[in-house]
Structure formats: structure tokens, C-alpha cells
Amino acid sequence: MFKLNQLETACEDYGQAVIYQGTVANSPHAFVLDKHHTIQTGKVFPVCGNTWHMLKGTRFAEHFQFIGDFSMHYGIFEGCGAFLPYDLTSSVAGSDNQVGACC
């Protein structure tokens, strides 16, 4: 979907966040990037490095405030990356794994 050289293979946590300004046409209350990223207008939303790049390095940048940088690394977001793009719930083959929102 995004052709950005900086994207990593995992959902890495650098302590970054974004604030959606509500300025995308027909999306005044929230911005939906994908099924894991519904960003409410005016609310600080923690993001992984990949999501940061997908917003900052594209036409969406003007619609967000960006908090943080890549100077600190906190590891991988819990529950992210390992199971994507597939959905797993407790009903899958008797598994107790549930995947939460990513980044």
C-alpha cells in the first residue's frame, strides 16, 4: 500500500504518537488508516515506526501533528506484527490467543 524505504518488518515502538487534526475530507471525527488504526480527532494516538512513516512520509502528513522521533527504542508493540495480517480469536482451533489493536 505504501512504497516507503524506511518500513521495518515488525511493529517497533519508538515512543511516538500522532494527533489527527480532523482535516481529511469526509473524516472530521476520526481517520481510519486500517482495521487496527482508527485515530480519533484531537486525541494522542501511540504509533509504531511504520505507522509514523506511513503518515509522515505521505500525503497524510499535513493532517497530523507528530510527537517523538526515533531516538529511543522500546521493543515491539505487544500483540503486534506476529499475527498480522491474519485475525486470530479464541475461537480459532481452540486457541486462547487474542490479538489487540496494533501500534
Description of the molecule:
The protein is mainly beta. It is 8% helix and 21% strand. It contains 1 helix and 5 strands. It has one helix at 49-56, and strands spanning 16-20, 30-34, 37-40, 44-47, 64-67.
Order of helices and strands: EEEEHE
User: Which radius of gyration do the C-alpha atoms yield?
Assistant: 14 Å
Residue runs with pLDDT of under 50 for 5 or more positions: 90-101
Average residue-wise pLDDT: 81
Largest sheet, spatial ordering of strands? 4-1-5
The total of helices stands at: 1
- Biggest sheet character: 3 strands, antiparallel
Give the helix proportion (percent range).
Answer: under 10%
The total count of strands amounts to 5
Estimate the global geometry from the Cα principal axes.
Answer: globular
**Distance from first to last alpha carbon:** 17 Å
- Find the structural class using helix and strand composition: mainly beta
Work out the strand percent: 15-25%
Topology:
Layout: E1 16-20, E2 30-34, E3 37-40, E4 44-47, H1 49-56, E5 64-67
Task: Describe, in short, the structure shown.
This protein has 103 residues and is mainly β.
Essential attributes:
103 residues, two-stranded antiparallel ribbon, disordered C terminus, 3-stranded antiparallel sheet, mainly beta
